[in-house]
Prior knowledge:
The chain has one domain. The chain contains 3 helices and 7 strands. The protein has helices spanning about 95-105, 110-125, 190-205; strands spanning about 15-20, 25-30, 40-45, 70-85, 135-140, 145-160, 165-175. It has a 7-stranded antiparallel beta sheet. The longest helix has 19 residues, at about 190-205.
Amino acid sequence: xxxxxxxxxxxxxxxxxxxxxxxxxxxxxxxxxxxxxxxxxxxxxxxxxxxxxxxxxxxxxxxxxxxxxxxxxxxxxxxxxxxxxxxxxxxxxxxxxxxxxxxxxxxxxxxxxxxxxxxxxxxxxxxxxxxxxxxxxxxxxxxxxxxxxxxxxxxxxxxxxxxxxxxxxxxxxxxxxxxxxxxxxxxxxxxxxxxxxxxxxxxxxxxxxxxxxxxxxxxxx
Length: 221
């Protein structure tokens, strides 16, 4: 008879915040429930110019029609759920505030960074650069680990406790996969993207190829 201990636990998807210099995880966010669906879109970076966009335009060099400037621009969208009634470790006084805040800080600089930027601005002695955020990885099993930047975070809070702390929420998360076109050479995120792309190549090589006869074509084209 199968024991409950013999049933493997499902792998969770999640987000890992990494120190880009040391490569050490700074924070690991495990999604409480794996999303039911994923929406992925890939837009090729064509080198052919405006004529590649369709519509019958004649722009673009014919010699560039099959050339790519770099990896496809890839984006992901999914909906995640957080429910305090399914998490016994959630502190009652806070509801799911900590989980929401942890995700929101992926798109906010810290208060210390903002104070330091303000101090430098007031001092007026150095050029102020945009605040750099930590490297963020999205993981969907061992075959999908990629550097990303959050482009969307919408929160729909649907239940509250007596102190108006949210206890259930639905999150709309959008991400852009960061490729070697987005990151400087030698950056840890660029290396991780190349590993992610190499994984795709291995999976593509394992796929069964079709035959011309299945397309109603002869041996030659």
